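Re: duplicated header lines in exported structure tokens

Our pipeline writes sequence and tokens for each protein into one text file. With two proteins the header for the second block appears twice in some exports. Here is an export where it did not happen, for reference. First protein block:
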Amino acid sequence: MIGQKFGLLEVIAQADPVLVGKRRQLRRARFICRCACGFEMCVYANNLKSGNSKSCGCTRSVSKRTHGRNASDPTYSTWSAMRSRCLNKSSAKYPSYGGRGIKVCERWNRFENFLADMGERPTGKTLDRINNEGNYEPGNCRWATPREQRANQRPQQTTAITHQGKTQTMAEWARESVVTYTTFAKRIYAGWSVGRALSEPSHATKRSF
């Protein structure tokens, strides 16, 4: 069962079985599980298989830990998404975050601590790590605009390109063109010339980016 997931619980190791019954002859298998919130606990195998154990209990106290907030709240949704991309291996963004070692500090496993350290999410800004190789933790995170985040992206996203005697990052070229950064980057990586990648409207090349 090691490696299997049951709700928010992932089995990480087998624990010593427990002897029960009047003659203490029945052995009940137990496993050490890690909850998505980071807490580890010992769970009986039959409770996992039956669905009786799906989390460490953190979901039952969510209203207390989140001050009654839910996914529609900007600050809470940011906190939730942060933890998902670092902890949930099923998340599409996990390979770029948890999969490459980016972690959420233990303090920020509780929403009220995240809120106390970062404050409410300002309109038009999202969570950004100052050091892109660092973890989500106080001192390495800020609320930033999309432009500030683009300037702080990983090296492959800020590659400098020289065109017609002018050198700029890919993000800067895209801001001056008729296409988005994503479209421009895909075209460059596909072998397009810089001039064509910048000037050809995306709607005209729907099948080719």
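Second protein block, exported in the same file:
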Amino acid sequence: MAILTGSCRFGLWHVHVSWEGDTVYRVRFARQGIGGAVPEEIRRYCAGRPSRLTDLQSIATAGEGVYPRIYRAVRGIPCGKTAAYSEIAISVGTAPRVVGLAMSRNPTPIVVPCHRVVAKTGIGGFSPDPAIKEALLAMEREGTVCMSEMREINR
């Protein structure tokens, strides 16, 4: 199989995805769309419909270094919930600043839901625009996008 690329809409933004099978290699937010397919679960999520993002794998979680450990911890944050940079840092044995760096370098946002990691005193950063982070969190808090993920977590 070859790596596929495509985009779907999320509000005023386009979500560009590079992927193969159930593995996602890159996710980026951009003002312009590109042609091509996007994994069904990401399309459903961006459309505000129930999705199972946990069915997708991220290249970011492979390995035993500090960043993969951070990304795996972030994947464990339930949909609609948040965790502070310091909480993630404690769980993997590093500093909050390292968690912040890992989030800024996350190659697969949404799949590794870095928007769920917040500062103790506010929302924290998100590239290319913190408004995207706020919109993702608001959509998740409505409870419609991750219903199947939430049911799985509650089992």
